[in-house]
Request: fold
Amino acid sequence: MSPLSVFYSTVYALGICITGYFFCLAILAIPFFQNQVIYLHSVTLTWFQDVTVPEQWGFLRNQVSPFTLKTADRVTLQAWHILPLELYRQHEEELVKELDGNSTDIAKRLGFRLLHDDPESLLVLYLHGAAGTLGSGWRPPSYRAMSAGAPGRIHTVAIDYRGFGTSGGSPSEEGLLIDALALVDWAIKEAGIPPSRIVIFGQSIGTAVGASLVRHLAAQPDPVLFAGIVFVAPFADVEMLTATYRVAGTIPLLGPLARFPRLLAFFNNFIVSKWPSKENLAAFVRQCEEMSGNDQKYHITIIHAQDDYDIPWSHSDQMFWHAVRATRPDDITFEELEEEKEQTKKSLGPASWVVEHQTSKGTIREEITKWGLHDRIMSYPVVSLAVLRAFQSRENLGSEA
Reply:
């Protein structure tokens, strides 16, 4: 083959690749396909497993009570209530004798009564990330990590959002907020747990849902504030995510487009689900800072691993910056805050560091670990300790902590 033929073949192949890439971008401008990429809800990862049988993921018999709850717009969501291990041990004989499977009336289950009837019980409301179901990947080990700091008191309730797993409906920004509100409503009204004994936990897109949730509830005429918020591997907003996100941690889907900011900005105009997490978190902090006559304090922990190849940890820097800015009467640039962080951050050895910003109204922490990837970190002690610290911020654990 002559050099000229090679040249033309190369140009032809390159043209096909470029055309194919922009064809894919055109498809992603369609909301249906956007949702498939943002939420990955069609990728269940548990195709041959029944989420009403949690023992498949290593839980003890009836340590998890599967149940369903209804949202305000009548969508049915699949949920799990996970008992902490020490509490399970204390009631093991009774729990083993109970019928298993999906509960039609969760209030009749012993696990629910152990949560509802104990005035010292604590509850983590768990908002998981994109793709999969309640039982996918590192989520089951993560549920166990939630209660590690107080294994006799910290319960966890997780849901599959609409469109995920066996839950009904299709995901959307508005819909997932409705799902999270349904979970909070169930926790407060049916389980009888006041917000002061609840921690909101979110990972990946669950942090976006969580930020939207806490902002919404803090803005109500009767504001709702929780014991704490723990966000793991958050993203600042979808627009920033499009420039940095890597599918499966390897494929930079919009990386080539990110080299042309105006072109990327034009494409972002077509994105329906914006998930402005940094603005939502900042608005929540601002609402808390401006509350008068309120002795409740907010407690926010942001955790990210440096080796997270799905969502770079620079997103957590952005989240922390926007939250801190919301506490200050004078503005501060990102660069100025980074300089402050260098002076105040505390090294936790070769693997991590933490920086903390405190006001009379609350605390904002950013904790960065060297290892943990995007999902594995959810089961690490750094997360268990963050949950424990959030509950301690409301002095709910006393001597047990």
Q: What stands out?
A: Residues 44 and 132 are 4 Å apart (CA to CA). The chain has a mean pLDDT of 89. The first strand starts at residue 64 and ends at 70. Strands lie at 64-70, 76-82, 122-127, 154-159, 198-203, 228-232, 298-305, 346-347, 352-358, 362-369.
